[in-house]
Design a protein that fits this description.
This protein has helices at 4-18, 22-29, 33-40, 51-58, 62-67, 83-90, 93-114. By secondary structure, it is mostly helical. The protein has a single domain (4-90), classed as lambda repressor-like DNA-binding domains (434 Repressor (Amino-terminal Domain), Orthogonal Bundle).
């Protein structure tokens, strides 16, 4: 049997590495921040029914969350999340807005050059 404390530890190690705020992670999952806080404080284990979504948001696999072991190759729960997306998720909301504004500017510039 898998020790649920290990799962929680792995989830929040990645959350702390990838997200500037826990509430951003909660929003990405479509959950209220209190639900994620309850996972961290081990008041709730409802994360178990959301492991595929959590793995996707954290750029890892369900296998890793459950066992701590990385998987080789592609399998059904191995979700690739590009490096840039993980870096973007670590930014503050204000910095994310600046990045999106810059991307929009570059896109408009390239579109204008194509005409």
């Amino acid at each position: 049997m898998v020790d649920p404390l290990d799962i929680v530890d792995r989830i929040f190690k990645l959350v702390d590495e990838l997200y500037s705020e826990q509430q951003i992670f909660a929003a990405e999952l479509g959950l209220p921040p209190s639900a994620v806080s309850n996972w961290r404080t081990r008041k709730s284990a409802s994360y178990n029914k959301r492991l595929p979504e959590i793995a996707r948001a954290l750029g890892t696999t369900v296998t890793y969350l459950l066992t701590g072991k990385e998987t080789e190759g592609k399998d059904s729960d191995n979700i690739d999340q590009p490096y840039l997306v993980r870096k973007f998720n670590r930014l503050s909301p204000e910095a994310q807005d600046k990045v999106m504004t810059f991307i929009d500017f570059l896109s408009m510039q390239e579109d204008a050059e194509k005409k």
